[in-house]
Write a sequence for this structure.
């Protein structure tokens, strides 16, 4: 039994808390806050096939150090995870990596929507966490940009009761804008080519399809003020649509290209401060349902290539909670809201059984992130001084002290 004494809880009172465990430990919680461990509903741990970018040995440690004990992993691996056979093989590889590092992380996998494998959708029911549709291209080749395939995916997901998660960027418009672009080949071009219209148009289309078929639609990494308004409107009309935002669209803007270059190149790209403010407003008003890190690492060498060659995506699984705790410190978000966005709402949308995992937070701890565990070993937030850090994560009754090096 783990016995935590006199710890601050979310309702502002101090209480004792007990967690079933093989270990017999008493923790003095008087200077700490107890939160349910968080879920990251959007990660790319790059396994199998792209393990030079990330693997579950590194990623599992990164999760614990960020207070996260459950993740949903995306299907754009090598090969792409588009059949149940591949999904089970992927689980076998992941289980092996988690076992060797001794961290029994909870995870669920997405099935990638692929027009030559629509028959897999029925098999995925109750096993895959959802169906992922890439309306616009990103890492990997899983684009679905033709009308009839999109209709089929939305309809099948609805019939078989799977959440359909979309990467909403309009592929045709991206190509059109790429051809028309004549400006300098610097990373700033990324936000110009994949502009807000690219995202808005795809989000609008996805909402229309969800409405038509009654699909449970989960919109990943929403980045613009206009999309927040569209989603608010759809929710008012009773469409089952859920909205995720990422830490990078909350805490970085296109101004950050000047200092961070292609390190902060991702899809959809960074926007303006006005958009960041609109996302925070969406959080406060309840239009935004979840926060997902979209942890999508590449090696330093890959990212250091010039714009056009450098791949899109940044890491984030271990920096999300410290950034949110710091935003709480600055009065921008409530603690209860953080837990709703990164735990309770995700359980509700995806129908998860709650875990008995916890994270202990020191709200007074101030400084920079001491160590990164992700294999790519960089973060655009590494230089920020933040207030509030997770110090202990409890996963399946095992205590991980984050102030020491993780296993
Ligand atoms: Zn992603």
């Amino acid at each position: 039994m783990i016995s935590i004494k006199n710890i601050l809880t979310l309702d502002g009172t101090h209480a004792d808390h007990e967690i079933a465990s093989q270990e017999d430990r008493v923790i003095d919680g008087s200077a700490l806050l107890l939160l349910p461990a968080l879920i990251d509903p959007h990660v790319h741990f790059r396994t199998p096939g792209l393990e030079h970018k990330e693997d579950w040995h590194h990623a599992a440690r990164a999760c614990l150090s960020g207070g996260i004990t459950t993740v949903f992993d995306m299907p754009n691996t090598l090969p792409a995870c588009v059949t149940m056979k591949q999904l089970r093989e992927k689980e076998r590889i992941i289980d092996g990596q988690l076992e060797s590092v001794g961290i029994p992380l909870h995870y669920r996998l997405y099935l990638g929507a692929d027009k030559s494998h629509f028959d897999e959708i029925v098999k995925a029911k109750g096993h895959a966490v959802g169906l992922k549709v890439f309306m616009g291209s990103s890492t990997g080749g899983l684009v679905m940009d033709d009308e009839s395939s999109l209709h089929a995916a939305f309809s099948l997901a609805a019939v078989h009761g799977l959440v359909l998660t979309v990467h909403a960027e309009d592929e045709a418009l991206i190509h059109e804008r790429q051809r028309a672009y004549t400006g300098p080949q610097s990373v700033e071009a990324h936000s110009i080519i994949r502009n807000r219209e690219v995202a808005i148009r795809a989000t609008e289309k996805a909402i229309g399809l969800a409405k038509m078929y009654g699909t449970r639609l989960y919109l990943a990494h929403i980045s613009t003020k206009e999309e927040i308004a569209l989603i608010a409107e759809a929710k008012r009309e009773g469409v089952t649509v859920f909205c995720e935002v990422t830490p990078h669209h909350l805490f970085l803007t296109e101004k950050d290209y000047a200092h961070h270059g292609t390190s902060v190149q991702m899809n959809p790209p960074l926007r303006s401060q006005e958009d960041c403010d609109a996302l925070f407003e969406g959080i406060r008003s309840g239009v935004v349902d979840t926060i997902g890190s979209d942890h999508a690492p590449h090696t330093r060498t890959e990212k250091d290539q010039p714009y056009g060659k450098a791949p899109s995506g940044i890491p984030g699984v271990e920096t999300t909670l410290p950034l949110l705790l710091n935003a709480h410190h600055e009065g921008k978000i409530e603690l209860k809201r953080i837990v709703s966005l990164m735990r309770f709402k995700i359980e509700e949308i995806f129908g998860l059984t709650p875990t008995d995992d916890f994270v202990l937070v020191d709200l007074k701890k101030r400084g920079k992130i001491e160590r990164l565990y992700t294999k790519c070993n960089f973060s655009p937030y590494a230089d920020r001084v933040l207030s509030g850090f997770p110090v202990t994560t409890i996963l399946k009754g095992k205590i991980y002290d984050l102030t020491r090096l993780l296993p």
Observations:
- The chain is about 35% helix and 20% strand.
